[in-house]
Batch of 2 targets.
Target 1
Amino acid sequence: MDGFNPNATTVEEYLDGTPYFRTDLYSTCGTVMTHNECIALVDGWDLKFSPELKTPEVEMPFEGYTQEQYAQDMIDAYKAAGIDPSRVWAQSFLPDDIFYWIDNEPEFGVQAVYLDERVDTVEGYANATASLPDLAARGVKIMAPAFFALTKLDNDTGAIVPSEYAVAAKEAGLEIVTWSFERSGWLNEGGDYYYQYVSDAIDNDGDMYTVLDVLVQQVGITHFFSDWPATVTYYSSCFGL
């Protein structure tokens, strides 16, 4: 993942932003690829695609270029390369992008992934949970909040269990994808952003497996973005997933 030092006073300090629990061992100045080059590379390995339409940092339309054109251009790149839509999971944090693909590119829209950041506040979490049936009715098939939003602690037992959001998503018939595993530091003090709803039950790194098991076996996630593949790969191999 990208990193930066927000307290930097020089360019060099700003770029030296790798978190203390990560390494720069593999930061070897790789060549940045274009989207089209990336499509060709991934296709050459017969893999699947999960492109994210990044939210613009400028106000749209920008010099006449609209958000709709932007959303269409990403899909057009896969069509031009002859990629079957069933291999593409287009993602966006903006619901209008998801709705655009559903309405205008239904073969891609049927598995468009709504990255749901509304859950970042208490009020937003409640509103997001309540909105899931309407989103399903609108044609959204896949919801993807950060994984903290999918678990909570049982008030009676203290066990980690599916959250209200997770239960509502399943009841609405929505598939659940989540992110991002292995992005936290050491878990001996309860974790951070990604463990905020279950922090009282987190006191060592091994607890990530407990959370992962609940997400897979009880919440029923189908995909999990991870910054480092070892943990989820080991778990998947053990359970034959």
Target 2
Amino acid sequence: MPKVPATSGHGRPNRKGKKSSKLPLVGISEHDAGVLTKVKRRAHLLDTCLFNFIGIKFGWSSVIGVVPVVGDIFDMFMAISVINACESIDGQLDKATRRRIWLNIVLDLVIGIVPVFGDFADAMY
């Protein structure tokens, strides 16, 4: 996945404690840049924000998914909130991208429902 200049490290404090300025956006509207930032933040929270164990990063999705069935269903609703945010971009998502996202959500739910193995596979996926 190519790096998006709009959100690559902007707004984080540098070594001197000052905030760095946002990088200029190229080719997308301000509204879409805001949506992109919001989606990337949610994805980070769900996938990688909590801890790193033997090179595998874990987020809230992995922790919540440990609760049998209910956790996986809740995780699915959080993923749907991400796709709903994606739907608000100016140009709309194309059908292939939308289909791929929904396939990932369904696979995540089906794999995650399987006890123990599903949680492990879900974290790896």
